[in-house]
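Please go through this chain and its backbone structure tokens and walk me through the local backbone shapes. Keep your notes short.
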Amino acid sequence: VDATTNRYIGIYEVDSNNKVVSFKLIILTAGDIKVPAPVTAPTLPASPLPGTGPNTTKVTTSVGAGNHLVTKVSSTLIPTPNVGDAAPTGAGVTNPYTPGED
């Protein structure tokens, strides 16, 4: 049962004539749902190179069919995301990023 979309479960006890004998409505809570263990995103083979303009860097790599790159530049350490996490947004993010561009 996908409890994110389907929060309610109706459990019916029926007799041999398929008539309801008893019923229980269950409203799911977070504790009723098994959450899959997070999987750390695998390392992307990417290499930094000096950019073409002053004070720039470019990154070279390739992506799978239908995917694209996103870059995030930060003055603080960026934690490794899990597979399935949303792409970063906000300050310092370029989405999409073209490999080899400054």
